[in-house]
Design goal:
Elements lengths: L3 H6 L9 E5 L4 E3 H17 L7 E5 L4 H13 L2 E4 L6 H11 L3 E4 L1 H13 L3 E4 L7 H6 L16 E7 L7 E6 H14 L7 E4 L6 H14 L2 E4 L5 H7 L5 E4 L1 H8 L14 E4 L6 H11 L4 E6 L3 E5 L13 E2 L4 E5 L13 E6 L6 E2 L3 H7 L6 E9 L5 E6 L4 E3 L2 E3 L1 H9 L4 E11 L3 E10 L7 H11 L8 E4 L13 H8 L7
Parallel strand pairs: 1-10, 3-4, 3-5, 5-6, 9-10, 9-11, 11-12, 12-13, 24-25
Antiparallel strand pairs: 1-2, 7-8, 8-18, 13-14, 14-15, 16-17, 17-19, 19-20, 21-22, 23-24
Helix pairs in contact: 2-3, 7-8, 10-11
């Protein structure tokens, strides 16, 4: 039996001296060198007692070695669990415990604070730093440079990604080999990637966009990648002449547009700019086209499905839309209360079905049943409509999930932190429009009786409890929260009241 994901993405490059990763220091990692490193990592993982089907959690900085860890997990039949580098120990504890991860790979600087937690959960800890050093690399150094690929079925799990809803704890979305591979094949063909491309990669790789979209497409098509540790404006501008395509979030494009060095001449050789993970303002679309002559291609996806729709590569890319359902993906707009399909032009909940749709939520059968229908359609939680020409428009969400800079943010988690402060009676956390991040977090609090809240002091408490991207950008004190007749807080009214609070930002 084969290993479809490894064979198709990685195995096709065995022994090839073709360039794969161009690094910011001017060095290049070939496909062959990358696969040798991945094979040694696979040996190190199995020597540590990790077996096929086990989970390996990784909270590490972006590097060729961290990407090789992903490849090693695929080759060894291990379920890869990438975790945001901003997560706190408290947040990580839940992910490690819930996933039952056999091994945690972290930066050496975090080992001292993470090891006690890992030990208490029966999880071994290895380290991997941004420069490639660490105990994982030490163990891999003397391992063989080839590894017998573990046979896997297309329905076997390849990865977990934790996502958030508006109630309950974060959910582990189970992604199979078929989910990842089918989407990579569809996108590489739809966006016309080939081995003549060089992708400018400045996205994080603990997220669907940077790992399972950008990287998998590059591997499948044989494209090289300019592999930057993060989005650095100077580096992106300097290296863009060497690229043919770029994937980014709206923040990337607004920051490029704010720099006079970003010109039509600089982008003349580029064939494609793709945006996703958060809504792109129509104004950004028009400014970008006016500056460069390129029209950004916006698409729509999520943790549980990877990509669902895309504006066309050849054809009209409409600002304010996410294009058409991808080949092989079915999309329908339904009535949230009945599940019945509603006519085009009407707003309803978006449901999708296809080989890209995840297997379910890890150890959460009730959540899975509530969001993944028996006929295979996934209830995305997004509200949208389809216009007369078939373009899909996202108009909001029927959940309170906030997406800021491409990251999913769970409001209740932040509210629990705010409510714990003695000056706070209750709180409501909302997302409001932001030019750079699509949305950003605002906390609305009601003071405890007899208290005059110090908003700066309250904000400070969130910095130790929450990752930076979850921390409210602004706190607002009000006498009471708006409620309906059933006593439920009406967050839609709060969003309307404060939607323009960052309009001048």
């Amino acid at each position: 039996m084969a290993n479809p994901l490894y064979d198709t993405l990685f195995g096709i490059h065995a022994d090839k001296s073709t360039p794969f990763l161009h690094l910011s220091d001017g060095t290049t990692v070939t496909h062959a060198d990358f696969l040798t490193l991945a094979a040694r990592f696979a040996h190190a993982l199995t020597n540590a007692g990790v077996t096929p089907g086990d989970r390996v959690a990784a909270q590490i900085e972006k590097s060729p070695q961290s990407l090789a860890l992903y490849a090693a997990c695929v080759q060894a039949g291990i379920v890869f669990l990438p975790l945001n580098t901003a997560y706190t120990v408290s947040e990580l504890t839940y992910f490690i415990e819930n996933s039952g991860a056999r091994l945690l790979v972290c930066d050496v600087a975090k080992e001292a604070e993470l090891s006690p937690m890992a030990v208490s959960l029966g999880t071994e800890t290895l380290t991997l730093n941004a420069d490639g050093s660490g105990s994982l690399s030490d163990r891999a150094q003397d391992c063989p440079d080839s590894f017998d690929t573990v046979a896997r079925h297309s329905d076997d799990l390849a990865a977990f990604l934790y996502t958030s809803g508006t109630t309950g704890r974060s959910k582990g979305a189970m992604l199979t080999q078929k989910n990842l591979l089918s989407n990579a094949k569809t996108l590489a063909a739809y966006w016309e990637f080939s081995d003549a491309d060089t992708l400018l990669h400045a996205l994080p790789i603990f997220h669907t966009h940077g790992l399972f979209v950008a990287t998998n497409i590059a591997l499948l098509s044989g494209s090289a990648m300019i592999f930057l540790p993060k989005f650095d404006l100077d580096a992106v501008l300097r290296l863009m002449p060497q690229a043919t395509a770029m994937m980014g979030v709206p923040t990337f494009y607004t920051r490029l547009l704010a720099d006079p060095r970003f010109t039509r001449e600089l982008t003349a050789h580029m064939r494609l700019f793709i945006s996703g993970s958060a809504p792109l303002l129509a104004e950004t679309h028009s400014q970008f086209e006016g500056r460069t002559g390129h029209r950004i291609l916006e698409r729509y996806g999520m943790t549980e499905t990877n990509m669902n729709t895309s504006n066309p590569y050849t054809g009209e890319r409409r600002a304010g839309t996410v294009g058409f359902p991808l080949p092989g993906v079915e999309l329908k707009i339904t009535d949230p209360s009945t599940g019945e399909v509603i006519p085009d032009g009407k707003v309803g909940q978006i449901e999708v079905r296809g080989p890209n749709v995840f297997k379910g939520y890890w150890q959460m059968p009730e959540k899975t049943a509530a969001e993944l229908r028996s006929d295979g359609f996934f209830i995305t939680g997004d509200l949208g409509t389809v216009d007369d020409d078939g373009y899909v428009h996202i108009v909001g969400r029927n959940k309170d999930l906030i997406i800021s800079g491409g990251y999913n943010i769970y409001p209740k988690e932040i509210e629990l932190v705010l409510d714990a402060h003695p000056d706070v009676l209750e709180s409501a956390v909302i997302g409001v429009p932001h030019a750079d991040f699509g949305e950003t977090v605002v906390g609305v609090i009601v003071p405890a009786p007899g208290r005059t809240p110090d908003l700066e002091a309250i904000a400070l408490t969130t910095t130790t409890a929450l990752a930076r991207f979850k921390q409210p950008r602004k706190l607002i004190s009000v006498d009471e929260l708006p409620r309906n007749t059933m006593g439920k807080v009406q967050k839609n009214l709060l969003r309307d009241a404060y939607r323009d609070i960052f309009a001048a930002s």
